[in-house]
Amino acid sequence: MFKKDRQMSIPKSILLASSLIALLAACGADQAAPSSEIRVTLTPNSASVYVTQSVQFTATVHNSTNSAVTWSLSGAGCSGDACGRISSSGLYTAPPNVPYPAAVKVKATSVADTSKSASATITILATVNMWTWVSGSNSRGQVGVYGTKDVADPANVPGARSLAVSWLDSNGNLWLFGGGGVDSAGNYGELNDLWKYDPQTSMWTWISGSNVIAQNGIYGTKGTPHSANVPGARSMAASWLDSSGDLWLFGGIGYDSTGDYGWLNDLWRLNPATLEWTWVSGADAVFQVGVYGTKGIADPANVPGARDRASSCRDSSGNFWLFGGEGIDSTGEYCDLNDLWRFDPTTLEWTWISGSNMAYQAGVYGAKGTADPANVPGGREMPVLQIDSGGNLWLFGGAGLDSVGYPGSLNDLWKYDPATLQWTWISGSNTAYQAGVYGTKGTADPANVPGARSGVVCWIDPLDKLWLFGGQGLATPGDSGDLNDLWRYDPTTSAWTWVSGSNTAYQSGVYGIKGTADSSNVPGARSGAVSWLDASGNLWLFGGSGIDSAGQQGDLNDLWRYTR
Predict the structure, then answer these.
(1) Statement to judge: residues 383 and 488 lie in one domain
(2) How far apart are CA 269 and CA 299, in angstroms?
(3) What is the pTM (predicted TM-score) of this model?
């Protein structure tokens, strides 16, 4: 028998294992402190974004009290701004064109330890046939937020307006002047404010003019730029951009040097570098008669009569073209005009090219598709005028006189060849008040044609296709009013295509999310808007008098982009 106090014998193998476990535990205790190595994480770690649109990235720096990072972009198919832009807060904005390959790497690098970083891959997508609400409000009648003159600010935005004028500069900035609208105090009237919008920063800048309505013009000395000079408040003017990047403005209805209100025929130039206006031509008083001279002969004494609602374009030689409008002819009579003028910004001389020096002329259409020296569009106001890559002028619609002298909205399309000095009636009707033939959306057809209308906006794209949006006129038989239909005309097939929008009048805008393209987005019906075509072929649209997101009618200050 064993004694009760005798200890049990423990095998040596168990003792050895226990000692090893204890040793390992002790070593583990020595290594238990967490690593202090800095690391960076990035969310999201991948994204897809449409051209010119944005996505927010967030970088987190771990194991450091310094959370700052620097951002950089790179891509196999891009460099610099061609990869897009990223702000100090991590907001990435895609470039206007899709790089090839269509991938951009965004990288966040720790400031505390520049060897530590995190990356994400962005896929750039092309938007096709989609509208994006970019800026401004989805409600009518908005007051302008001017901020400080010549200082961009995300809060800045022009007030609601219609019948303004626009330019696109060589840097892709959108310029906007005047119109009839709402000032900073909520008052409605003619404006003379000049604005610039930068699509890269998505910010407006108030550049020149007043933030209140009804301002007189300060003309200074003709031909001499001065910082105090400024055109008077006006709407329905004409505009051009010259080859040097200067902005030009002609006529409209508004205020002269003494505060009298009426039609104007003053020509102005703005140097965007100095921000100084120069009064170049015409009078500093309202209601001036036109001095036509001899058709086809430039003369320093020539000048178009005072007018508004004319249309304008610039040719590849830098000449400015002006057609029609409502105004004063050579005898002092006033009504719709059909005179075509050319201005040479080098010699500063006007030339009367085509049409009559008398108001209220009926159209001479001839045979459709056949040029003839006798052909000429009738007098009209608020048509649109564009120029193609071959130097041909294209004129569409407006409110004016048809082939029998009957006044009304028109849907005729004309081409003018400056080489032969001949007009050709291309499409549409030679009688007023014609309804549209829409066909199937997205399908070209020789039978398709937009309805008669005025106050449309118009572009010619890099492929020489003519685009029209909205205006006031006829949709289908018995249905007229403000429109939001988008059309494209192809001169090679002589066919119109109904591209977007509705075939009924007075449609509300579908805005979606600001900054996000969507196939269901569409601007509301409107007339008297302004437009731009950027270097990437995107169509831009601002304001006008129309229908907001709630179906209410009034002046608008929404900015839209359409990507073909």
Answers:
(1) yes
(2) 20
(3) 0.82
